[in-house]
Design a protein that fits this description.
- The chain contains 7 helices and 10 strands.
- With 226 residues, the protein is α+β, with helices and mostly antiparallel strands.
- Strands 1, 2, 3, 4, 5, 6, 7, 8, 9 and 10 form a 10-stranded mixed β-sheet that branches.
- Strand 1 and strand 2 form a beta hairpin.
């Protein structure tokens, strides 16, 4: 029996987007539910579906059609796509999660900006928090920010928010490392503070401050319980 390409595609897209019904998928594609039935009968993926899914979600056309290869087109850090979720009645937005990791410890040398996956958020919530187009998600390793932030947490960082507010948590680049720390600005120095008191503060004097770059403010934390 010949495999039904449409059924496979529908399952693939629903799993990737969190869409829970074919009616919602049809709405996302801008077609009637009967359009899905018609495509199923022909057992052929319409070209306009591939274009719509690419534009709306950023899915790679080859992955849409075959399920093989990379799921998303190559993204730059901070880009994201919109889609409307009829089930929630809300506009949603994808935020890229990059391969680079934030270190809650001695420093992360994993600074790869390649997108490994996307996380989905309510677009209105993101807009209230900052600049969604400049947001990026990164995973944490190390325990210097425990108990507030633990190893394995995923943090959402707004790269547009680089102004320092005392006590706020930021992603900070120091030379070739990426740290997640609370930052205090003292006269002629920056102090990078850990919540875990086993870690001493890091003092960056005036001549070292130029080597530091504020990547962005941490605005959200996701924790997976193990």
């Amino acid at each position: 029996m010949q495999e039904n390409k449409i059924d496979e595609l529908i399952g693939r897209i629903m799993d990737a987007t969190g869409i829970t019904s074919q009616s919602s998928l049809a709405a996302a594609l801008g077609i009637n539910r009967s359009g899905i039935t018609h495509a199923r009968k022909k057992n052929q993926v319409p070209d306009k579906w591939i274009l719509k899914l690419y534009r709306k979600f950023g899915f790679h056309p080859q992955w849409i059609e075959t399920g093989k290869g990379q799921m998303f087109m190559k993204d730059t850090v901070g880009t994201a796509g919109f889609f409307h979720d009829p089930t929630l009645g809300a506009e949603m937005r994808f935020i890229p999660k990059v391969s680079a990791r934030l270190c809650a410890g001695g420093g992360s040398f994993v600074t790869d900006s390649d997108v490994k996956e996307h996380l989905c958020f309510n677009a209105a919530w993101l807009a209230a928090k900052g600049s969604a187009s400049r947001m990026v998600a990164m995973e944490v390793f190390g325990n210097s920010m425990s108990p507030e932030i633990k190893e394995g947490d995923t943090l959402l960082i707004d790269q547009s928010q680089t102004e320092i507010y005392a006590g706020a948590i930021y992603a900070v680049g120091v030379e070739d490392t990426i740290l997640v720390k609370r930052i205090e600005k003292h006269p002629n120095k920056l102090v990078l503070c850990s919540d875990n008191r086993d870690y001493a503060p890091i003092y960056l004097e005036r001549d070292e401050m130029d080597a530091a770059r504020i990547i962005g403010k941490v605005i959200w934390n996701s924790r997976e319980y193990r």
